[in-house]
């Protein structure tokens, strides 16, 4: 059985922890592990392999975190632009054998009862092997308005329902045959594709074309889809494209202590607490405060006579909200997009070659700490609007500036003028750390013209 892991989504309801280039599934929220890592570990116990569907930025985050787990032998499908879950699953299934059993899971859900989870998977496998499309219905613990619902008659799906209002959700809970729609599925790859072809033929055909004629294969385990080919595929969810129309759908009721960790209120429920029901944090000081979610690792956070609050500090952004109102964070992100890049990236940005951390950013200049992994190098590039000064803190840097290639060691430096073609490389087995000072009229991350790149990216 293959676990198809869907890594799309930006998790804007968990801003400022979650950003476009570091979405919630890769943030290490639980015992220094991410939801993505927990998903891989959980499903590796029951699946033979992972097939990870993501965009190129998330691909490198996934590679890093899989390396930490020592689970590097996987398959990858890279989407240049997201087209929702139906095309993502279709492309993955088309790359597998028709009889291959697949478990489709999001990468950002938490499941705490793994013993019951494995029992649920065994029930689903029995149904999927009989050519059914199986969905997992979460046994509701409350009248939740943030989830879609599955109406069932025993194991047969009667209907899918959109997110209800509170009154309707309470009726669903009382009825006892309604389940939260988990977004997890199990079926044979070929059976799903047959149903997709029957009920959403254009998605099927355009996905087939994209995979057969437009794929750029960088290795035997990695498939890259071209941008135009991906855009030609109609955008739709698996629910709308197949599950709501097929006559082969079964549901397995699942009481597995599941959470989509879709808001700070739900995150609060899953984090460890102190004796006052505040989330535990070594740098949190409370005076007569209780029931608070406190998140922050850099600065001390103190509260006095504060109850039922959410306080999230990430260094470059501070969120303060009443508990129960955290769904409105999406509105905050909409406002932020109008004026800054804070929705997009943290002070520390992760790249396939390493990381950079912004130490200071002001009009006319920016200072970064750059770490380059052993054997990695940045793209061959140039800038229009800024000059750069590089100082080696530790390690050995191989520097290319126009036609010159030279080596810099600790405490040595160089200068790159605007317009110079340049590259930073680490040809050693040790980490390279430099300080980069940018000076110019514009120091944004999009002032990069790439001329050659090991990772086949556009601009950062």
TrEMBL record:
Protein name in UniProt: mannose-1-phosphate guanylyltransferase
Domain of life: Bacteria
EC number: 2.7.7.13
Domain Nucleotidyl transferase: 3-275
Gene3D superfamilies: Jelly Rolls, Spore Coat Polysaccharide Biosynthesis Protein SpsA, Chain A
GO biological process: GDP-mannose biosynthetic process; polysaccharide biosynthetic process
Pfam name, any one: MannoseP_isomer
Residue ranges occupied by any Mannose-6-phosphate isomerase type II C-terminal domain in the UniProt entry: 341-453
Lineage start: Bacteria, Pseudomonadati, Campylobacterota, Epsilonproteobacteria, Campylobacterales
CDD domains to which the protein is assigned, alphabetical: cupin_PMI_typeII_C, GDP-M1P_Guanylyltransferase
Similarity-based family: Belongs to the mannose-6-phosphate isomerase type 2 family.
GO MF terms, alphabetically ordered: GTP binding; isomerase activity; mannose-1-phosphate guanylyltransferase (GTP) activity
Boundaries of every MannoseP isomerase/GMP-like beta-helix domain copy: 283-335
């Amino acid at each position: 059985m293959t676990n198809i892991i869907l890594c799309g989504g930006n998790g804007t309801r968990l801003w400022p922890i979650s950003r476009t280039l570091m979405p919630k599934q890769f943030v290490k929220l639980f015992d220094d592990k991410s939801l993505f890592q927990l998903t891989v570990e959980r499903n590796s116990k029951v699946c033979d392999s992972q097939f990870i569907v993501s965009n190129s930025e998330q691909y490198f985050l996934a590679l890093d975190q899989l390396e930490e787990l020592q689970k590097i032998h996987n398959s990858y499908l890279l989407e240049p632009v997201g087209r929702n879950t139906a095309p993502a699953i279709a492309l993955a299934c088309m790359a597998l054998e028709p009889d291959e059993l697949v478990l489709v899971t999001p990468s950002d859900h938490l499941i705490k009862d793994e013993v019951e989870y494995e029992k649920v998977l065994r029930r689903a496998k029995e149904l999927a092997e009989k050519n059914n499309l199986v969905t997992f219905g979460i046994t509701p613990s409350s009248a939740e308005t943030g989830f879609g619902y599955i109406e069932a008659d025993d194991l047969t799906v009667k209907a899918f329902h959109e997110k209800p209002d509170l009154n309707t959700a309470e009726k669903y809970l009382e009825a006892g045959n309604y389940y939260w729609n988990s977004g997890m599925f199990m079926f044979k790859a070929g059976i799903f594709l047959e149903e997709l072809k029957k009920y959403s033929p254009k998605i099927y055909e355009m996905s087939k074309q994209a995979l057969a004629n437009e794929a750029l294969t960088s290795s035997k385990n990695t498939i890259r889809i071209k941008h135009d080919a991906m855009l030609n595929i109609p955008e739709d969810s698996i629910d709308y494209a197949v599950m709501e129309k097929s006559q082969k759908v079964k549901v397995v009721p699942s009481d597995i202590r599941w959470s989509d960790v879709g808001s700070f209120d739900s995150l609060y429920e899953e984090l460890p607490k102190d004796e006052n029901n505040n989330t535990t944090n070594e740098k949190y000081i409370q005076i007569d405060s209780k029931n608070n979610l406190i998140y922050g690792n850099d600065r001390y956070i103190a509260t006095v006579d504060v109850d039922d609050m959410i306080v999230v500090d990430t260094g470059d952004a501070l969120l303060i909200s009443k508990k129960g109102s955290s769904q409105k964070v999406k509105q905050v992100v909409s406002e932020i997009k109008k004026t800054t890049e804070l929705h997009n990236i943290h002070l520390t940005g992760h790249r396939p070659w390493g990381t950079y951390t912004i130490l200071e950013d002001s009009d006319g200049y920016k200072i970064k700490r750059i770490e380059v992994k052993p054997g990695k190098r940045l793209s061959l590039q140039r800038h229009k609007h800024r000059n750069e000064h590089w100082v080696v803190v530790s390690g050995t840097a191989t520097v290319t500036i126009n036609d010159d290639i030279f080596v810099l060691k600790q405490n040595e430096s160089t200068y790159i003028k605007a317009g110079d073609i340049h590259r930073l490389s680490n040809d050693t087995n040790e980490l390279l750390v430099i300080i980069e000072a940018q000076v110019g009229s514009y120091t944004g991350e999009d002032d990069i013209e790439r001329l050659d790149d090991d990772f086949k990216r556009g601009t950062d």
